[in-house]
C-alpha cells in the first residue's frame, strides 16, 4: 500500500529546494519520490537518518552526497514513525525523545531523586564499608598527624597524664591496639579519640565527674570508638562525595590530598547516632567486665545533658540524646551485673580531680 504526501527535497549539490511527492512503500520498505528531471529515487528506510524536530521530520540519506527531505505532514510523519516502530527501526534514544515533555520531566525528577539518595545514603555507606580495605597502619598515621597538628595548641598535664594511664592500666578495655591517654589542662568539657589509639581527656570534663565509675564509662566509650575505627569511618563518610567524584575521574592524588587536609579536624568529627549507640553498648560491656557500676555512664551523660548549654564542644562530637540515656538505663535494668570495690581506681581518680 502506497501512502503519499508533499515534501521538500535538497539534492546535496545546491541550496535550491524541490517540491516532491513522497510515497511510503511499506512492502519494499522504501521511501520513493520522483525528481523534476523524471528520475525516480528509492531510499531504503533502514538507511535513512530521521530527525524529529518542532518544524517537522527531517530525513538524511547518502554517503558521498548527503541529501535531505523535510516533511511537515503530521499524518504522514505518524505513518512513517509507526512503520519504523513496527519494524524495529527506532532506537532507544529516539523512543525516549518521542515520549514528550511530561515524561521527560518525570524521568528527570526520578534521576535527580536517585542521585540525591545515592549521594546522601549509598555513597556514604559504601565509603564506610570501604574502611575494611584500608590498612590499620593508615589509622596510626592519621592519628599521629592529627595529634602533631594539635598538641602545640594544648597544655598537656604530664602528671595527670601519667595518672590517667595508670588508671587505664587497671582496666580491661577490650582494645584492639595500644591505647595512649593524655590529659589536657583546659576548662573545655571535652574528650576525644584519634584513630591511632590516642585518647585525650580535658580537665574540664574530669571536674564534672563525681565518681571513678564515670571516668571508666568515658574511657570505655572512647576506647570503643578506637576499636571500631569510628574516626576513620566518619572521615570517609564525610569525604564520600569528593571520594566518589575523584574515583570516577581517577584522581587518586586528590583523594589523599583531601584526606590530608581533613586530618586536623579528626578530633571534632561528629559521630553518627549509630556509632554512638555502638560505643555506648561496647562501653557498657567494658564496665560490666571490670565489675564497675554501669550507672556511672548514665550519671555522666545525664549531667552533661543538663549542662548542654555550657559544653558545646563535647556535645558537638558526642551528641547526648534522651534515646542514648534511655538505652543505657534500659541495659542497666535488663542486664545482671556485679560490682566490686576498686580502691586503686578510687585513689587515682581522686588524684586526677585535684
TrEMBL record:
This is Peptidase M48 domain-containing protein. Residues 163-331 form the Peptidase M48 domain. InterPro entries: Mito/Outer_Membr_Metalloprot, Peptidase_M48. Belongs to the peptidase M48 family. The keyword Kinase does not apply. It holds the Pfam family Peptidase_M48. Its cofactor is Zn(2+). Keywords: Hydrolase, Membrane, Metal-binding, Metalloprotease, Protease, Transmembrane, Transmembrane helix, Zinc. Gene3D superfamilies: Metalloproteases ('zincins'), catalytic domain (3.30.2010.10). GO terms for biological process: proteolysis involved in protein catabolic process. The chain crosses the membrane at residues 101-122. CDD domains: M48C_Oma1_like.
